[in-house]
Amino acid sequence: MNKFLKSLCLLIIVSVALFSCVSNKKLIYMQELEESEGPLLNSSAKFPYETEEYLLQINDIVEVNIKTTSPELNQIFGAITNDPQNMAQMGGTQGAGDAFFMNGYTIDDRGYVEIPLIGEVKLLGLSTKEAKELVEKEVLKYVNVNEFFVRVRLGGIRFSTLGEFNRSGKYTILQNRVTIFEAIAFAGDLNKIAKRDQVVLVRQYPDGSQMHRINLLDENLLGSEFYFLKPNDMIYAEPMKVRELGAGTNLVETLTLLTTTITAIALVLTLIRN
What we know:
Elements: H1 2-20, E1 61-68, H2 71-77, H3 84-90, H4 92-103, E2 105-106, E3 112-115, E4 119-122, H5 128-139, E5 148-154, E6 157-163, E7 169-173, H6 180-186, E8 199-205, E9 208-214, E10 233-237, H7 242-245, H8 251-273
Parallel strand pairs: 6-10
Antiparallel strand pairs: 1-2, 1-5, 3-4, 6-7, 8-9, 8-10
Helix pairs in contact: 1-8, 3-4
C-alpha cells in the first residue's frame, strides 16, 4: 500500500509539472522569431452581413435633438437634452446609458413620445430615419426650411446576460451596432462550464418575444441575422452537465478530484485491513 501511495504522489507531481508550466514564448507579444513565415497564418472566407433595419418598439429610449436658428425655440426644444458632457460626468458606458434614460424620450405603451412644443408624435414601428423625417415635418410648422437640424437615434444598445457568465447583468453599449461577441466580452465572457454551442437569445419583436438557440462555435454565425444584437436582447448561457456531476472544469481539477477520491479509498482500505 505504501508503494501504491508513493506512485500516486509521483503521478500527481508529474501531472502538476506538465500542466501548470507555460513557456514565456507562448505569452510574450511581438517577439523577434528566428523562423517566421509572416504574422498571418490563414484567413477564412468573408461572411456578408445579414442585417435588417431596426424598427422602434415600446419602451425604447430615443434621443430627439432639435436645433434651430432661434435661441427661444432652442430653449424650448432643449427642455430635455442629451449633452455628451453630462453623460461623461455620469461615468462610463453604463452611466451614459443612464443619462439617456434620464434625458431621452421613452416610447410609451401607445407608441408615442411627447416633445416640447410639438406635442405627441407616434414613433412605434418606424426606423430612426423615418422618425427623423416625421419630426422634421412637425418642426417645419414653427421654423423655415434650412433653419433647423433634427437628429433621432437610439440611446445605445441595451441588453442583458444571464446564466454562466463571469459578470451577468444588464448593460448598455453606446454604439449603433453591437455584435453578440462584443456583448459577451462586455459581460466578462462565458465561464468554463457554459454551453457555447447552445446559447439562448431572447429577442423582442413588435408582436411578442421569441427564443433562438445559437451555436457560438459555428463560423457561419458571422453572416447570420443573430450576429448583431438588437435593443433589449437577452442572452442566456446554460451550464454543461459537468456542473451536475460535480467534476472539475479542467484537466488539473479533474486529476485533483480523482486523486483525492483514490487517496480516500486507499485510506479506508488501510483502516479496514488494520
